[in-house]
Write a structure and sequence with these properties.
The structure holds 2 protein chains of 2 kinds. Chain A is mainly β. Chain A is built from no helices and 11 strands. Chain A is globular.
Chain lengths: ~110, ~120
């Protein structure tokens, strides 16, 4: 199931700089996109989401951008902190309520002090 | 902050045995889910559950799997006859309305149960 793709398995960024994580999708039916953060031996933790009717959503240091025509979304973290080092999953779903969420393969972010 | 809990944290079983993984979703949430993550692979959807019935399931969720909400707080995943390839982390998640008001779309995940089938 390759409907959600994260083509970069890892990303290394200096503390204080911007981290940009990218995600592409193929299913035009998706109407809601989410980013999850995952530490080893823990479950995914919700970070930020965006509805398909918007092109930007911001929450503190985290901003998600959606380009529907390109079927692309990105997560920007500014400024990056060492504690942000984790695996970041892009996810997408459609419909409302209890429907399945399709996850990307994840991108491991390393923030160097 | 409310959280999803799962027990046990690690389950070891012999191939062919039945296992039951347990989850306590966030109180007042309406939708419940099971996902799995095989080591090194992506998180995969198994099943969603709403109003005491399955609302959607993936091709992974075959007849060996079943889910149940036996009471007002627990949500379980049963694997009837485990196979080696069932070894994975199993995550429970929940979403929906809660008392303080929140997104109905965001799923909150538990810490997972590591299932090892020998």
């Amino acid at each position: 199931d390759q409907q959600v793709k994260q083509n970069s398995p890892s990303l290394s960024v200096q503390e204080g700089r911007i981290s940009i994580l990218n995600c592409d999708y193929t299913n035009s039916m998706f109407d809601y996109f989410l980013w999850y953060k995952k530490y080893p031996a823990e479950g995914p933790t919700f970070l930020i989401s965006i509805s398909s009717i918007k092109d930007k959503n911001e929450d503190g240091r985290f901003t998600v951008f959606l380009n529907k025509s390109a079927k692309h979304l990105s997560l920007h973290i500014v400024p990056s902190q060492p504690g942000d080092s984790a695996v970041y999953f892009c996810a997408a779903r459609w419909g409302t309520g209890g429907f399945k969420t399709i996850f990307g393969a994840g991108t491991r972010l390393f923030v160097k002090a | 902050e409310p959280e999803v809990t799962q027990t046990p944290s690690h389950q070891v079983t012999q191939m062919g045995q039945e296992v039951i993984l347990r989850c306590v979703p966030i109180s007042n949430h309406l939708y419940f889910y099971w996902y799995r993550q095989i080591l090194g692979q992506k998180v995969e959807f198994l099943v969603s559950f709403y109003n005491n019935e399955i609302s959607e399931k993936s091709e992974i969720f075959d007849d060996q799997f079943s889910v149940e909400r036996p009471d007002g707080s627990n949500f379980t995943l049963k694997i009837r006859s485990t196979k080696l390839e069932d070894s994975a982390m199993y995550f429970c998640a929940s979403s929906g309305l809660w008392a303080s008001g929140g997104s109905t779309d965001t799923q909150y995940f538990g810490p997972g149960t590591r299932l090892t089938v020998l």
